[in-house]
Amino acid sequence: MAALIQDSARPFTGGTLTALLSPATRLLGLGEPTHGVEAFPELRNELFRHLVEHEGYRSIAMESDCLAALAADAYVTDGIATLDDAMSRGFSHGFGASPANRELLRWMRAYNEQRPPHERLHFYGFDGPLEMTGAAGPRPALTALHGYVAAHLDLAWSRETLDELLGPDERWTDPATIMDPTRSVGRTPEAKELRLIADDLRALLTAHAPHLTAETSPDDWWRADLHARTATGLLRYHAGMADTAPTRVGALMCLRDAMMADNLDAIVRREARRGPILAFAHNRHLQRDKSHLRLGDLALEWWSAGAIIATHLGDRYAFAATTFGARGSDVPPPDTLEGLLSALPHARAVIDPGHLATALDRRLTPRVPADHTYLSLDPATTDQVDAIVFVKEI
After folding, report:
1. Is residue 37 part of a domain?
2. Which of 209, 244, 279 is the endpoint of a domain?
3. Which residues contact 142 (CB under 8 A, 6 or more apart)?
4. How far is 13 from 24, CA to CA, in rounded Å?
5. Backbone angles phi, psi at 370, to 5 degrees
6. Burial of 328 (0-12, 13-18, 19+ CB in 10 A)
7. What does the pLDDT look like over 239-287, one tens digit per residue?
8. CATH code at 350?
9. What is the pLDDT of residue 47?
10. Residue 236 shares a structural domain with residue 267
11. Contact indicator for 75, 86 with CB cutoff of 8 Å
């Protein structure tokens, strides 16, 4: 069996990975099994350079705040501000501290410097302005949307009306809300009215798209639509935070990935004429099968952004899951997928899941991680993965 498994693996290169994908791929999701380990964004950088130089990719989207990413994109596309500024303002989740992310923006800026605008690489975030400790307030997104539409159309709501309904930002960002739904303002009468206004503004943005695009630009309209998606998504999320039902946390997971999928869908449409996109996030946000997570006594299930977008794109969506072997004293048992792959001679390998399934002569046991930050691959669902990228040791 060992020889058959070796036949399913090749040393990692961008070319060995893309050889396993459908030629129709427009969105490639590269998952990582844990955050904060530089080996995975470093591998992502290597893959992205290959995709740009040999496969026609022109953009990358990361599991990071979609609004904050506008600052990072402004730096890489037009050299606006500095790299330090782009790192401090252009990421969420602490990802601005990653040396690999810094190298990514530096390389993208250098690539773009001598190229015309239509050939330049773009950087996107596709997460909402959300953290594990809570959600951002809707003011920045909602007022930016209102300002854009109000500059060209007569509206029933003034900026002062929005400010009055929004109230102090601290009401929206109270960290106690994550544990106590009664502290949330997401279902107050004012919040419900704001949801209606945000929905109406987005409808106006769509209904008047030809006029607004001609008056401004396609890029300006796209940013306004980004603010519309974010405003409506945040107001929906805050309403979910106010839910006192026992299903509250699972519902919030669903809402977050639905926002991610909306953003990915918009990015794919925007980039349709330029080239495919690489999306980088946790495996749980990009996988096709249902995501599972145990959080204390809660057993959570939700459909990931990858699963949702795959229903839209079909074989134009591809998913490469990344996993690893040893992490210090945490060595995977031999009856797990990671333990089996640890016998491969390659420090980094690309595995064909179909060939691997053919080579297996026994059922594998899911790996139980030594720490809560790592979520192992389910060996029973590798048939829904287009490629596995294995890092032998981190």
Report:
1. yes
2. 244
3. 162, 166, 194, 197, 198, 201, 227, 231, 235
4. 20
5. -80, -20
6. exposed
7. 999 999 999 999 999 999 999 999 999 999 999 999 999 999 999 999 9
8. 3.40.1660.10
9. 98
10. no
11. yes
Q: Three-state DSSP class for 130? A: strand
| Structure-token match 């470093």, residue found | 42
Judged by DSSP in three states, 27 sits in strand
In a domain, 97, yes or no: no
Model confidence pLDDT, tens digit, residues 330-344: 999 999 999 999 999
Residues with Cβ within 8 Å of 272's Cβ and at least 6 positions away in sequence, in order, are 26
Give pLDDT, residue 298: 82
Considering the domain architecture, whether residues 269 and 383 belong to the same structural domain is answered as: yes
What is the rounded distance in angstroms from the CA atom of residue 268 to the CA atom of residue 309? Answer: 10
Residue 195 CB partners (closer than 8 Å, separation 6+): 232, 235, 236, 239
Q: How many domains does the chain have?
A: 2
Q: Does 98 reside within a domain?
A: no
Q: What's the domain range around 167?
A: 136-244
For the CA atoms of the chain, what is the radius of gyration? 22
Q: Which residues pair with 127 in a beta bridge?
A: 65
Alpha helices in the chain (DSSP H): 2-7, 14-18, 39-54, 69-78, 83-89, 99-112, 139-150, 159-166, 170-173, 189-207, 209-215, 218-241, 248-270, 283-286, 305-313, 337-341, 353-359
- For residue 317, give Cα distances in angstroms to 19, 115, 229: 15, 28, 22
For 289, what's the count of Cα atoms within 13 Å in the CB-facing half-sphere? 15
Tokens of 217: 């630009």
CB atoms within 10 A of CB 208: 15
pLDDT (mean) for 85-101: 97
